[in-house]
């Protein structure tokens, strides 16, 4: 909203109004605003949750310090959501399709998580919202995202063309490449694309259309169908992964902040024509605006850690964890970096896999031997280390360190060909 106000003021030569044209300036304002909201107003929200007796219901699983958390306010994800949305509404271009998708994602999964937490707290049902309804909501969001990226004309990738292709619809663009003489122009065309970024492939790109080449003239349409299916899977997997990871004070929050910072770097270089050319990665017009959203995301998660770090004064609940995972998934998809998620979100992936392995092995051995056996002392993985006697802060810190290592690897892959 303020972006449009200051753009109008800039037309009137109002001093300093032109600063709002810069993504870097608005991103700085977004992260500072989200930090301020999360830390200052977060306390007021926590007091309100305490007043409403919205406390965590804890089952005794024999974990050290577990029962001490009983009654700690939950549904703190409201703090994260508010801290993200307000700066985005203030400083981002609200007619940008990518920003609209991220706002929808935040509210959509936040609402699903809120309903789940509400059932747990007020209905005293520890199971919360049924798994089928959760998955249905995640699938619904995946469909919205996938179909929007397919249908919307503003969702394009700028491809470089050769002079021999001058017959197609192109435009001459002064791209200001540092590797070329000033004023160099390059023939380009903006087009719908099912290409995505993946390391070790030629030009670090992979086209989903190659998976359905057998479709002949229908291959482009089939490629989008594959893309939508993959989008649904990623949204569901990552949001559930963040939800499972949210089991220790600050674990999911800190991991999400690290992932968010990495996605911010990837969004900035993907939306900046000079850096995209230098790194030889696809340039995505209008995606630079996403840096403002991710800046608010980083500020919100770090600000929330003020109260969520050990010992936690508030838990985010499913209201926060589902939102964080969904935001990360959709953000990676819209900047064509979704195939980097297994590396970047390695913590979420391992936590997810540990649960799947534990449940599958338990069922298999119970069927074969008459009693269920376990791979880990307890799943998800962070509880395994708790059962082994590791202090909670040490587990969280080490997971963060691993998350930073994975984030560095993700960024380095931009130059691995």
TrEMBL record:
Pathway connected to this protein: Cell wall biogenesis; peptidoglycan biosynthesis
Source organism superkingdom: Bacteria
Primary location: membrane
Gene Ontology cellular component annotations, sorted alphabetically: plasma membrane
Cofactor: Mg(2+)
Class in the EC hierarchy, top level: transferase
Listed EC numbers: 2.7.8.13
Gene Ontology BP, a term: cell wall organization
InterPro entries to which the protein is assigned, alphabetical: Glycosyl_transferase_4, PNAcMuramoyl-5peptid_Trfase, PNAcMuramoyl-5peptid_Trfase_CS
Keywords assigned: Cell cycle, Cell division, Cell membrane, Cell shape, Cell wall biogenesis/degradation, Magnesium, Membrane, Metal-binding, Peptidoglycan synthesis, Transferase, Transmembrane, Transmembrane helix
Transmembrane segments: 20-41, 74-92, 98-115, 135-152, 218-238, 250-270, 290-307, 314-335, 341-364, 395-416
Gene Ontology terms, MF aspect: metal ion binding; phospho-N-acetylmuramoyl-pentapeptide-transferase activity
Reactions listed under catalytic activity: UDP-N-acetyl-alpha-D-muramoyl-L-alanyl-gamma-D-glutamyl-meso-2,6-diaminopimeloyl-D-alanyl-D-alanine + di-trans,octa-cis-undecaprenyl phosphate = di-trans,octa-cis-undecaprenyl diphospho-N-acetyl-alpha-D-muramoyl-L-alanyl-D-glutamyl-meso-2,6-diaminopimeloyl-D-alanyl-D-alanine + UMP
Membrane-related topology note: Multi-pass membrane protein
Binding residues annotated for Mg(2+), in chain numbering: 243, 318
Subcellular compartments: Cell membrane; Membrane
UniProt family annotation: Belongs to the glycosyltransferase 4 family. MraY subfamily.
HAMAP family reported in the protein's UniProt record: MraY
Function of the protein: Catalyzes the initial step of the lipid cycle reactions in the biosynthesis of the cell wall peptidoglycan: transfers peptidoglycan precursor phospho-MurNAc-pentapeptide from UDP-MurNAc-pentapeptide onto the lipid carrier undecaprenyl phosphate, yielding undecaprenyl-pyrophosphoryl-MurNAc-pentapeptide, known as lipid I.
Name of the protein this chain belongs to: Phospho-N-acetylmuramoyl-pentapeptide-transferase
Lineage, opening ranks: Bacteria, Pseudomonadati, Bacteroidota, Bacteroidia, Marinilabiliales
Gene name in the database record: mraY
């Amino acid at each position: 909203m303020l972006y449009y106000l200051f753009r109008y003021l800039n037309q009137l030569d109002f001093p300093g109004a032109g600063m709002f044209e810069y993504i870097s300036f608005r991103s700085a304002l977004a992260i500072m605003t989200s930090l301020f909201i999360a830390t200052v107003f977060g306390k007021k929200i926590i007091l309100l949750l305490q007043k409403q007796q919205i406390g965590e219901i804890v089952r005794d699983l024999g974990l050290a310090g577990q029962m001490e958390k009983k009654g700690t306010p939950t549904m703190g994800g409201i703090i994260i959501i508010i801290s993200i949305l307000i700066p985005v509404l203030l400083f981002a271009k609200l007619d940008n399709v990518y920003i609209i998708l991220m706002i929808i994602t935040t509210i959509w999964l936040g609402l699903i998580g809120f309903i789940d937490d509400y059932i747990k707290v007020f209905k005293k049902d520890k199971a919360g919202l049924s798994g089928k309804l959760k998955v249905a909501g995640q699938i619904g969001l995946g469909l919205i995202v996938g179909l929007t990226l397919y249908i919307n004309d503003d969702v394009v990738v700028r491809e470089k063309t050769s002079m021999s292709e001058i017959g197609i619809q192109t435009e001459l663009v002064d791209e200001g490449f540092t590797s070329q003489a000033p004023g160099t122009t390059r023939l380009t065309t903006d087009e719908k694309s099912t290409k995505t970024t993946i390391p070790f492939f030629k030009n670090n790109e992979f086209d989903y259309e190659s998976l359905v080449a057998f479709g002949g003239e229908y291959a482009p349409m089939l490629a989008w169908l594959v893309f939508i299916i993959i989008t649904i899977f990623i949204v569901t997997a990552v949001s559930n992964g963040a939800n499972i990871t949210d089991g220790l004070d600050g674990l999911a929050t800190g991991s999400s902040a690290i992932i968010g910072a990495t996605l911010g770097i990837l969004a900035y270089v993907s939306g900046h024509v000079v850096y995209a050319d230098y790194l030889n990665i696809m340039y995505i017009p209008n995606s630079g605006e996403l840096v403002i959203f991710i800046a608010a995301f980083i500020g919100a998660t770090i600000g929330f850690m003020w109260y969520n770090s050990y010992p936690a004064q508030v838990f985010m609940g499913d209201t926060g964890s589902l939102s964080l995972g969904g935001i990360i998934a959709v953000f990676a998809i819209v900047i064509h970096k979704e195939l980097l998620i297994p590396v970047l979100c390695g913590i979420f992936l391992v936590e997810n896999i540990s649960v799947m392995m534990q449940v599958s092995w338990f069922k298999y051995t119970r069927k074969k031997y008459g009693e269920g056996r376990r791979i880990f002392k307890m799943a998800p993985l962070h509880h395994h280390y708790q059962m082994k006697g590791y202090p909670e802060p040490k587990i969280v810190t080490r997971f963060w360190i691993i998350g930073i290592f994975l984030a560095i690897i993700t960024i380095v892959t931009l130059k691995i060909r």
